[in-house]
Amino acid sequence: MSDAVPTDPESETAVSESGSAPAEDSAADEARAGAVLQARVADCLARYGIPVRTEDEALGFEYDGTLCSLRAVTLVPGLDVLTFTGVLAWDRPLKPQLHKKVADRNAGLQFGTITVIARAKQLADIVLRYTFPAGGLDDEALTTMLLLVLSGAGQARKGLIP
């Protein structure tokens, strides 16, 4: 018996054992990998008393006043990353002092980048973003990375709000 993947003679497209095209299987595998990683993240955060909710295919929560979102994404098979977005402050007056404060915090930040997002009426939001490979980390290493990123967000937020 051959282990070859059967092909559809009409289209000459390879078909997997499940009957779907390989690209469909790959997309489903990527979605499953992301869901598993996000579930692990939720469990890791829950161990530290951080309540997490699922919103729009991402995890949402608050940490030390920062509004946070974490999402698992498979960039290519075998490379699963977590994308972190934390809103440190919002509706801040867009002044040179704000840019200086953000630059100072970026200089002291180990993980991620803080940006000023200008909006209408001379107001701005301050957001921390960080993406890191997480698929191969065990739960202890994953938790350590998460807590380092969250700690940095909490420290960066200080002084950005009155």
List the helices and strands and how they pair.
Blueprint: E1 7-8, E2 13-14, H1 22-46, E3 53-55, E4 58-63, E5 66-76, E6 79-93, H2 96-108, E7 113-119, E8 123-133, H3 139-157
Antiparallel strand pairs: 1-2, 3-4, 4-5, 5-6, 6-8, 7-8
Helix pairs in contact: 1-3
What is the gist of this entry?
It is built from three helices and eight strands. By secondary structure, it is an alpha+beta fold. The protein has one domain: Yope Regulator, Chain: A (2-Layer Sandwich).
SSE series: EEHEEEEHEEH
The number of helical segments is 3
Distance between the termini: 72 Å
Instruction: Report the helical percentage.
Output: 25-40%
> Largest sheet, if any?
6 strands, antiparallel
Overall number of structural domains: 1
Unreliable stretches covering 5 or more consecutive residues? 1-16
